[in-house]
Amino acid sequence: MTVAPTDSGFVAGAANVVQSVDWLAIAPPTLTAVVGLAVLVTDLFVPGHRKELLGWISVAGLVAAGLSLLPILDDERSTFCVVGRGDTLCSYTADEFTLVIQLLVLGGALLTALLSLSTLKDARAAGKEIPEGEFWFLLLSSAAGAALLPAARDLATLVVALEVASLPAFALVGLKRGDRRSSEGALKFFLSSVTATAVTLLGASFVYAATGTLHLAEIGAELGEVDGDLRTLARAGVVLTLVGFAFKVAAVPFHFWVPDTYVGAPLPVAAYLSVVGKAVGFTGLILVLVVAFQEYRDVWGPALAVLAALTMTAGNVAALRQRPTRAYSAVRLLAWSSVGQAGYLLVPIAAAGYADRPSEADSAVGSTVAYALMYAAVNLGAFAVAALVGRSHARNRVSDYRGLYARSPLSALTLAFFLLCLAGLPPGIIGLFAKVTVFSAAVDAGLGWLAVVMAANVVIALYYYLQWTALLFRAPEGEPERYRVPAPLTVAVALAAVLGVALSGAPQLVLRFTTSGLF
């Protein structure tokens, strides 16, 4: 068939729109989303006493999504591509950075699902039933968005993935019907996240207006050629986008929603937000700053350094001030600790803004990824033990952990290990090495003052982590009672502990990212 010359432009345009899809590359988020829809439909036909089946379907779906990463481990794949100004630009890229973050997200979601099986069963037994079909659908939907985000290579896909990950999380926090704390936490989380989204979209629109493109790589090339009034618009877009993501990662002063949201949410959801929610925010921050906004590193580099110092200090000081006898003080301490840890995670990204060569920026990003992997494993483990103690102590105070070793020796030992990892003390070797890599990234970038602030914060954190650890081995008040640990909760704690021990024994498994190029 011969195409008329007048139709050639139409055909070329159609070729950019109608294209083949690399289903293997997009399998992890797609599988997760499909299983979420399947669970929602299955919920209509499953009787109330068999709702636990939905949880096991969700766990199987997350395992399958994780296994779908294996065929593409050694192969960089891209899809949804168009021909740009001289280069092929893709909206979805499965490279090493993408696969590592997807592994973190899906692994975190899997551990959250295992924790949730016990939490939902206990709520059902107590007559405070949480709608299970909706719970699993929302969790899987959020995980699908979180798995999509690290592969996004244009602003539109990135913002959509960010919202797909965030919107279901609002509902997850507020699923405890009739609980005032749950409603309050969901409202604060919703308002802060909606504000962040609005600011991010405004910033993205400014960048698009200045560069005429949404693809991150092309934005990086075009920003250097922007001049005149458009340069001011581009700088404003960079700053607004940075502010929007600062909300997402709970950086000071946009952190106010964290403690009340964690306390109000079901404990597995709080664990999910502390790990997967943060991974989403930091991944988006890395992509827009290091890939797209490298030209304006003189703007965002110093700003992130200040944010990192403020965030780690505010989080650790607030955690230090938690009273052990206050209701929900254990969850609040973990919440403020997560704010402090967010400050540490910001340090290498700030250091990337001071890098003279792309390899130095890659190394700094690798430090953030290594620290995030360590933090995900041990923080989820700490929340898993908190969920165990919370089964018999509804107020979940730090003082409730006194004498845990006498009641459940393995639980006490694993929690002590997780806390020591977060503190960066042996035998939590991976925590120590991860902190050293972050510290080194600051020093190598010439941010000596930030390294000093970090060192001071590590000392502050040592106090409350060690205080909690010591409490585990003190003599219990009264006769110690043994804990019954449900099988899913046991598996979750064991998986986190095995991962933490493995990383402490072979820290090179994650520390290699500090020397290998992720982009």
- Total E-strand runs: 2
Q: Could you report the average pLDDT, rounded to the nearest whole number? A: 85
Tell me the radius of gyration: 23 Å
**What order do the strands of the largest sheet run in, or round the barrel if closed?**
1-2
Strand content: under 5%
Task: State the assembly state of the protein chains.
Answer: single chain
- Percent helix: over 70%
Span from first to last CA? 43 Å
**Structural class of the helix and strand makeup?**
mainly alpha
Which regions contain 5 or more consecutive residues with pLDDT less than 50? 1-15
Topology pattern, helix = H, strand = E:
HHHEEHHHHHHHHHHHHHHHHH
Question: What is the 3D shape?
Answer: globular
Which sheet architecture does the biggest sheet show?
2 strands, antiparallel
Number of helices: 20
What does this structure look like?
With 519 residues, this protein is mostly helical. Helix content is 70%, strand content 3%. The chain has 20 helices and 2 strands. It has helices at residues 8-17, 27-42, 52-67, 96-125, 132-148, 155-173, 180-211, 216-222, 229-248, 258-264, 267-292, 297-320, 329-352, 358-390, 404-407, 409-423, 429-444, 448-472, 487-505, 508-511, and strands at 77-83, 88-94. Strands 1-2 form a two-stranded antiparallel ribbon. Helix 10 (258-264) crosses helix 13.
Question: How would you concisely characterize the structure shown here?
Answer:
The protein is mainly alpha-helical and 519 residues long. The chain has helices at residues 8-17, 27-42, 52-67, 96-125, 132-148, 155-173, 180-211, 216-222, 229-248, 258-264, 267-292, 297-320, 329-352, 358-390, 404-407, 409-423, 429-444, 448-472, 487-505, 508-511; strands spanning 77-83, 88-94. A two-stranded antiparallel sheet has the order 1-2.
